[in-house]
Write a structure and sequence with these properties.
Largest sheet: 5 strands, mixed
Oligomer: single chain
Shape: elongated
Strand content: 35-45%
CATH architecture: 2-Layer Sandwich
Number of helices: 3
Order of helices and strands: HHEEEHEE
Distance between the termini: 5 Å
Structural class: alpha+beta
Strand order of the largest sheet: 1-2-3-5-4
Radius of gyration: 15 Å
Length: 134
């Protein structure tokens, strides 16, 4: 399935984004699984769903996924700024995937909030994608 190829391309695109580097430093921290004690801000893959569509001749995979931004700031200003850069980097992006082709990548929406127990703010940016092959 092309899900891993898409996730890898997304991570590479975010890591190379000048706006994210300016906001988060280099390297841009994008995690599949957040390591214990990871310094904020960071981006983590949250939920991911992939469904196969089409025939063996023209296999299409539909993906829906979320990227979660975690910030130590009291308000959501930093999380919103990082989310805006994620949106800019990925919405309608022409990413190159290993072993598959990205047909479409589009922003679905975003949400922001605070986790009072951990004293942090967060954002979640949701996308949908269509890939062929892989």
């Amino acid at each position: 399935m092309s899900a891993w190829a898409l996730q890898t391309a997304i991570k590479d695109a975010l890591g190379a984004n000048a706006g994210l580097i300016a906001l988060m430093g280099s390297p841009v921290k994008v995690f599949d699984a957040v390591p214990a004690g990871a310094a904020r801000p960071y981006i983590a893959f949250a939920e991911w769903r992939s469904d196969e569509d089409g025939s063996d001749d023209a296999r299409l995979d539909r993906h829906s996924f979320a990227l979660r931004v975690s910030s130590e700031h009291q308000g959501v200003k930093e999380a919103k700024a990082i989310a805006a850069q994620i949106e800019s980097a990925l919405h309608n992006a022409a990413l190159t995937l290993m072993g598959a082709t990205l047909v479409d990548l589009a922003l679905v929406g975003s949400a922001f909030g605070r986790d009072e127990a951990q004293n942090l703010s967060f954002g979640e940016v949701r996308f949908r994608a269509l890939t062929q092959g892989g």
